[in-house]
């Protein structure tokens, strides 16, 4: 009987769930990578599409043409059709004069058809055309060089500038088109002591993501800072979610960000354990209205997720 109850509990925990208060929420389709594959999971919890991918991805995109831009190896960005045909690939190489390791953690298909790729180790952003040729390069300023931690999320802004999360430096920097830093925000420990670890017990300033909002503020997913922060142009915190502020959720390594047209924010909560959702949607008054918890399809290392079928979303 005990074994039967344990198996029943495990099966329930494995299925995507919404809280009772969120039962009327229609849910979302999710594109994400973990547990050896990239998969699209429907709002009903069923896998709609998947490919093998043993690399722990840090970015993923469903493109307007229906193709998928994915992180398939430490240095490789690959574009797949829905039929799983490879139609474009970029493999980051060591730049001239550099002999260390290179890693890619962020990429973005741009409006002109080129692809932005952030190259840690090389400490640069490149824009690559459809033939795989680098057509633009922006050197990054990194205080603590580390090929695994130079960058996390990087996005090109509507202004043409670049918003870069420097994980190792614990800073978000905005670069202009010439590579000059024009804005910077450095994370602090929020009154807590620094501690090692990837789960809720770990705490530091290893920032993961940032989005420039329409009002000019910047929304930041703090990585192992265990917080979400919105800061104004002067670096003042104007809104935040602390580690244990939300009912029934403890923040660990905070990753994915989506800002919805209604102002709600979808947050990725990586390494938080199976007692927490891997993604959740929260209102500006900090009410959780949707939770995604699927430890059958994905696991405790779900870092990169693209929530699908939302128009005019910032991510």
Description:
This protein has 315 residues and is mainly beta. The chain has a single domain, classed as Neuraminidase (6 Propeller). The protein contains one helix and 24 strands. The chain has a four-stranded antiparallel sheet with strand order 3-2-1-24, with no helix packed on it. The protein is globular and about 50 Å long. The N and C termini lie far apart (46 Å). The N terminus is likely disordered. Keywords: Signal. This is Pyrrolo-quinoline quinone repeat domain-containing protein. Pfam families: PQQ_2.
Compact overview of the structure:
With 315 residues, the protein is mainly beta. Helix content is 4%, strand content 38%. It has one helix at 2-14, and strands spanning 30-34, 37-41, 47-52, 60-62, 68-73, 76-80, 86-91, 103-109, 115-120, 124-128, 134-139, 154-156, 162-166, 171-175, 181-186, 209-212, 218-221, 228-231, 237-241, 253-259, 265-270, 279-282, 288-292, 305-307.
Write the layout of secondary structure elements.
Elements: H1 2-14, E1 30-34, E2 37-41, E3 47-52, E4 60-62, E5 68-73, E6 76-80, E7 86-91, E8 103-109, E9 115-120, E10 124-128, E11 134-139, E12 154-156, E13 162-166, E14 171-175, E15 181-186, E16 209-212, E17 218-221, E18 228-231, E19 237-241, E20 253-259, E21 265-270, E22 279-282, E23 288-292, E24 305-307
Signal peptide: 1-20
InterPro entries: Arylsulfate_ST, PQQ_rpt_dom, WD40/YVTN_repeat-like_dom_sf
Domain Pyrrolo-quinoline quinone repeat: 35-229
